[in-house]
Write a structure and sequence with these properties.
Elements: H1 4-26, H2 40-72, H3 77-99, H4 103-121
C-alpha cells in the first residue's frame, strides 16, 4: 500500500482541479452570444462557448480519472497520474504563456504538481488506495 502522502497528493490535486473547473464553468453564463453565420469575429465568439465548456469538463474528467486510478491500485497508476499531471501542467503553462499570471493558471499548476508528486511517491508494483 502506498503512503498517506500519496493519497493526500491525489486528493489535493483532484480537489484543486475540481474547484478550478467549477469556478471556470460558473463564467459560462457571462460569455456574450454571437451569430456564427456572420463575420469571422462572430464565429470565434460563438466558438468560445464550446471552448469554455471543453476546458472545465476536461479538468473534471481528469480529476475523476486520477481518483479512480488511485483507488484501483492497478499496475498503471503511476503512468496514469504522470500523464494527467503532464496534461494539466501543459494547460497551466499555455494559459500562463497566453494570458499571463492569474489564479486559474496557478490552480492548474498546483493541481498538476500534486499529481506529479503522487506519481513519484508510488513505489513500482505497489497497490494504492485513495
Amino acid at each position: 500500500m502506498t503512503g498517506t502522502r500519496t493519497v493526500r497528493a491525489v486528493w489535493v490535486g483532484s480537489a484543486l482541479l475540481t474547484v478550478g473547473a467549477l469556478f471556470h464553468l460558473t463564467g459560462y453564463a457571462s460569455i456574450p452570444t454571437a451569430d456564427p453565420a456572420g463575420a469571422p469575429e462572430k464565429f470565434f465568439a460563438a466558438a468560445l462557448h464550446a471552448l469554455w465548456l471543453f476546458a472545465g469538463l476536461h479538468w473534471l474528467l481528469i480529476a475523476t480519472i486520477c481518483v479512480l486510478a488511485g483507488k484501483s491500485g492497478g499496475r498503471f497508476v503511476r503512468l496514469i497520474l504522470l500523464c494527467c499531471a503532464s496534461i494539466i501542467l501543459i494547460d497551466a503553462a499555455l494559459l500562463f504563456w497566453f494570458l499571463g499570471p492569474f489564479i486559474g493558471a496557478a490552480i492548474l499548476a498546483a493541481a498538476g504538481t500534486a499529481f506529479l508528486v503522487a506519481s513519484f511517491q508510488i513505489s513500482s508494483g505497489a497497490k494504492t488506495a485513495v
